Amino acid sequence: IDGEKGLLMHRGYPIEDLAMNCNFPEVAFLLIEGELPTPSQLASFTSEIKANWLVHERLLAFFGGFKSDAHPMAIMVGVVGALSAFYPDSVNIHDPTQRRLSAIRLIAKMPTIAAIAYKTSVGK
């Protein structure tokens, strides 16, 4: 980040270039791996995301514990914090393989968690 020059870069790429020329999985891959994916890497990465998108059934019970008018961001923070209890195989932050698995799981599950958090916050 160089605020004086108006620069915001991710892994050496200007954010404007990424926004105009890349999709979400490509940028997520870049943030995790440090480089933009090749077509085969992107296909493999996308498959990993799809394989991890389901939210554990018991995690869904957490949503019922929040007030119906709770802010969706507060709900998301609570649920994301609980993920490590459901996925203890990826809590060692010093292990690059476990860190990557945690990132994949979080990327995969956040759309569902965000949607349910919103529905919970509006009483549905």
UniProtKB/TrEMBL annotation:
Superkingdom to which the source organism belongs: Eukaryota
Transmembrane spans: none
Sample GO molecular function, one term: acyltransferase activity, acyl groups converted into alkyl on transfer
Protein name: Citrate synthase
